[in-house]
Amino acid sequence: MKSLDARLRLAGERRQVTALFYDIVGSTEIFVRSDPEHFFRSVTALHQTAATIVGRHGGFLHRRLGDGGCSYFGYPEPSEDAAGSAVEAALELIGTATTRSRRPGEPFKLRIGIATSLVVFSSEKDEIVGTAPILASRLQAEAEPNSVIVADSTFQLTRAKFDYSLIGEAKLKGFNESITLWRPEPKRHVQGPASISRSPGLVMRGREKELAALIDTWKAARDGNGGSHAIIGEAGIGKSRLVSELRRSIDGGGLTFQCNKRLEGQPFHPFIGFLETIVDSRVLKSGDGRRLREALRTAGMDVDADVAEIISAFTAERSRAMSANIRATDLTGRAFRRQVVDASVRLLCCGASAGPTLIVFEDVHWADDMTLELLDSLCARAVTLPILVIQTSRVARAEAVATQMELTGLPPAAIRGLIASVWDGSPPIGLSDFITAQCDGMPLYAEELAHFFRARHVGRQPVSEWKELLLEGGVSSLNDLLSMKLAGAGSARRVAQFASVIGREFTIGLLANLLGKEGRQALGEHLGMLAAHGIIEPAPGQTDTYQFRHILLQEAAYSSLLKGDRRRIHERIATLLIEERVPPLPDAIAAWQCAEAGRHGEAAKFALMGAEACVLRSAMKEATLSLDLCTRELAMVSRRHPRHRELTLNMLQLQGVVVAALDGEGSERARRIYSRAMKLLRRQETATREAHFPTYWGWWFTAPNIRTQQSRARVLVEDMMAVNDPETRLQSYHCAWATSFHAGEHGFCLDCVRKGLELYDAERAVRNRAFFGGHDARVCGLGESALAYLILDRPDASEDSINQCLEYAGLTDHAGSLVHALYYASVLRCCQGRHEDVHTLGEQMLSLAERHDLVASQARANMYCGWAELMTSSPGSGARRFQEGLSLQQQSGTDDNLSIHSDMHSQVLQRIGRHVEALSVIDNAIAVGRKSGQLFWLPELYRRRAGVRQELGDKSHRIRSDLARAIRIADAQGAGWLLERAKRDWERLLHD
């Protein structure tokens, strides 16, 4: 097996280098006239001399070519002044070689050619591909004895150091255009190049108006009337620089939240990252609100206990196995999500009483949805608190609450001032105008251009040549300048390249694992060098962690690597993560690392883990990003891969949860996902089916109608009979009893309740009730039994069941179960016409629903309370309340009991004298019930329609037909209570 160093030796790189080719003039004739042994020794000595001289000037003798050789400068180690070093070496080599004699009076004569270009070199095969070596070889052949010819590309980079003579132009083999030839003279005595590192003390230019606006808002915040600003602009325009200047002006630090690329799918990642800088991660993962509150107090944040409890519930480690069971029920995570956002706002505002606070969110274009909610809530609250909230982003958000401040290019006067600051005095005449035209107002570009020219300028250099210097230096963009900045770091550049593959932020430990032994030994020195060059800086609030000073620097370092090398480094990182030999990275980052490494199965796994973590924190939108990546990566995995089936099932199972939450449980997309999953799952062995029972549940729940749902419920019961887990079998019966009741199969419903509750375990229920339906299975079974017994005309059993249901729900102290029990009781008392009881139960349900932000239950509670008020008093207020509840329920799309609710609606309409509309509502309920398979209330709907028709004076045969149907259907269902009600109306009709 290859060593670590060998495995991670770079296969190559794109880099600008200078090639030097030398050749002995007339070597064949000299050889013929000389003693072969003496000639060989002389040539060998020349090569040794060349290697020494080239090496002394920072170059590398790459290859001996018989009577000549080729050397490179800027390779293997990058060099900022490779071209100048090559010319120096060439002139010294000419001078040294011509004084060395084979025998007195016969010195060697050399020809040397030099050229500079961007090349690609291969470390594995020791090859260099590019224009420079080809052109240098051609130039060497054109040179006069004992002379050097330099290509125009090298001349432009070195003309400040050497005097040149223009030889002319030549047409060289392989080149379409004529090549300009230059002959260098000995080096001038000039001052060395200035440092190109960024000057941290440069005064900000051209943002005085924007800075003044921020300071004004800060002053208002100090008086308790804060505000918020969104600073918008492209990368390099100076957003963070403006924020830094504000901090300097107000002499304060504040709180910073950094949004990161590729973490858009990780909910609340900037806030969690902030917490990790002030609280031990073990405390965050523990889920212990008391410990978190104490840790926050130690950090100077005194928050209420409920704030700490909510935040700790969000940050706690959770069992990912349960994520697939979460459904968009009445107890969706929307309420929890809002609670987390609100608690986070309260935490960040807790210090406002002690003084004004600056809160900054950087790079919001990479923020996740929950972070955006937090940001908007903060901005809305800031206006009444001593808080200034600032966000920086490349793109504007239409829905943002903050005052937008768009940064465009700096005006020419500001650019000139910036250039003068870099130059530390007056720049050459015309240079400021030239840079202003090049940079298009971007301050970072202008600053780097100024550094570039300052390092290469001499007093006699004509301004007309600045553009040629850029072209010949291969500088056409800000990225090119940043790449040259990296090259200026010398051997530390390699460390920056490896770090860039990790990301903008990287730990010393992970970086050390990527480097070879020599690289690890010099790591501290190289990190210091990169920091000195303004390339990296310590990450704020973290130990042993660095970050690239600007994302563009990280991108420049990353793009300088060959694709093959990038992939090999990604592969090494992926291996370290998979084998858990380094601390874990966020799942989204780990997935990206594996994807770039070509390890698609592992990428899918990490992406799935990231999606699960999102779902467990009610971050469904964020989960879609990880699931999309999982889908793409899984498509790259062979179907023969041993984990392909498992990953596919897990992905589909989680996709179903997310799509049902976002699109609705009845959405066509959710149904397609669950149907696809079931086609695959039902072909698997029992153990796999058991492990993926949530897929069965989702498939059942997203059925298009009750009839389909009932058939699927029977499949669930049948397929789960052989499984070992009692909870799984219980939940299969749970599905069956709910659907069977609606289908009018009351005997089967009660049988499923009996068998299911025999498997019930109170401790297991605590773990599972939040996932399967959002309520306790025992509460549900007892409530369903109460309704079934009523319809079967077994009133005593019905009363016993509903009393047990309410009592046990109270013992659970679980909001979802309490609301569920109150709803069953409300439906039961409504059917019995016990209006006062309905009103009392409805008010209890409403209070609980409002406390826990359960929208669907609020709608139902108002419907039942409004109906009860209407039936016992004047119609005005009750009708309005019912209608408001009905409208809210229709908006939320959560009506799973359309038959009874339509019956209630028709009674409301009758009560207020709108009989025709009442009839229409019942007609629709009957049609929908027959089509969907919700049959349990059909006998009552037919009976009620007969009554409304009679009030409207409809034809008697229609009334008799409705009552006959009611009797027939009730009898077929064994619904004795409904049967008796229909028969009584039939008897009255006959007597009338």
TrEMBL record:
Task: Please give the GO cellular component terms listed in this UniProt entry.
Answer: cytoplasm
InterPro entries in the record, alphabetically? A/G_cyclase, AAA_16, Nucleotide_cyclase, P-loop_NTPase
SMART domains noted in UniProt: CYCc
Q: Which SUPFAM superfamilies match?
A: Nucleotide cyclase, P-loop containing nucleoside triphosphate hydrolases
List GO molecular-function terms, semicolon-separated.
adenylate cyclase activity; ATP binding
Q: Which keywords belong to this entry?
A: ATP-binding, Nucleotide-binding
Q: Single Gene Ontology BP term?
A: cyclic nucleotide biosynthetic process
CDD domains on file: CHD
- Which is an annotated Pfam family here? AAA_16
Q: Where is the Guanylate cyclase domain?
A: 18-140
Q: Kindly indicate whether the keyword Nucleotide-binding belongs to this entry.
A: yes
Q: What name is this protein filed under?
A: Adenylate/guanylate cyclase family protein
What is the native source organism of this protein?
A: Sinorhizobium americanum
